[in-house]
């Protein structure tokens, strides 16, 4: 079941087509948060894309973030498209936090996303978004 959380009204929460369009234009920054094997936090900047309404695709070479996602099967992705010139606080940041789970490469779900996403490589991870959370 997909979780959705209400926004505080201090920032603009993106969803659906607006989120996909913003990510496709790479208007914002994405921080991927994972947990290292020793329990310490790991955060890194990457460029995931929305393949559809509930899947992110992200191409990662062998690195700590990829290792953490493959080991734990989960991560949190924060997407923020900042506009420092906006007059209102809600206009200065638009984005979303997404709780994600790794989709197994041998699964039918992975194959369906891969068929629809033209830029798949051997390094592409498919993540199922299991929760959308407001950024503020």
UniProtKB/TrEMBL annotation:
Residues 28-114 form the Pyridoxamine 5'-phosphate oxidase N-terminal domain. It comes from the Bacteria. SUPFAM superfamilies: FMN-binding split barrel. This is Pyridoxamine 5'-phosphate oxidase N-terminal domain-containing protein.
